[in-house]
Amino acid sequence: MCRRRRCFQNEKSFEKDEDCGIKPTEHTYVSVLSCYSVAQQVKGNSNLTKEQNQNIVDALAVFEKMKESNLPVNNYSMNALLGVFTNALRITRAEEFFARTYQEHQLVPDSISYALLVRMYCRAKRTEKAMALFDEMKEKGIIPTYQAYKHMVFKLVDEGYVEKARDYLRQMFEVGGFKLSPSDIIKYKSRVAGAARLIKERKQEENV
């Protein structure tokens, strides 16, 4: 079963519950929004862009229905909806949502919100913007998540900036108290080996 269909079935399921007098809870809505967020990451689908656009439309409709139900809008629901944009690399929509919509609901983006943007920028090869978010988190006293650090470290290594990546690894341990998991250490070492080749090629080009 495709993820989008699963989202649709989950949505229809709580609509049937409503018909039986069972009102969806905040958790129900967040689960459906999270489902749409995860569905945006599906690869190898020729209709991916079309499906991602429809997922956004459907997720926004679910969010509006949640508000109409007078259920509290909090960072869980906001981050789930933000993920619908970031996972589809809808950068402008994600930035606008991050800058305006949290404030409209008297909320402040948290470490998860920032991690979603960091991952989006890393995937979109906007490394400088991802790094700027770490500076912003530091200014606001927000401790980055493990995932935010991991995406930043791996992206810098992939681009050949191994020393800069090590700076983030140090921050990861000193600020966040995190260490790379055993599986991520294997990935890190493999990427560092690839970066060494990239650095060598750069030096050869400079000497031409």
Automatic annotation (TrEMBL):
InterPro entries linked: PPR_rpt, TPR-like_helical_dom_sf
Q: Which Gene3D superfamilies match?
A: Tetratricopeptide repeat domain (1.25.40.10)
Q: Which domain of life is it from?
A: Eukaryota
**UniProt keyword Chloroplast present:** no
For this protein, the record's Pfam families field holds:
PPR_2 (PF13041)
Q: Where are the PPR repeats?
A: 110-144
Keywords in alphabetical order:
Repeat
Q: Does the keyword Repeat apply?
A: yes
State the name under which the record lists this protein. Answer: Pentacotripeptide-repeat region of PRORP domain-containing protein
Q: What is the lineage of its organism?
A: Eukaryota, Discoba, Heterolobosea, Tetramitia, Eutetramitia
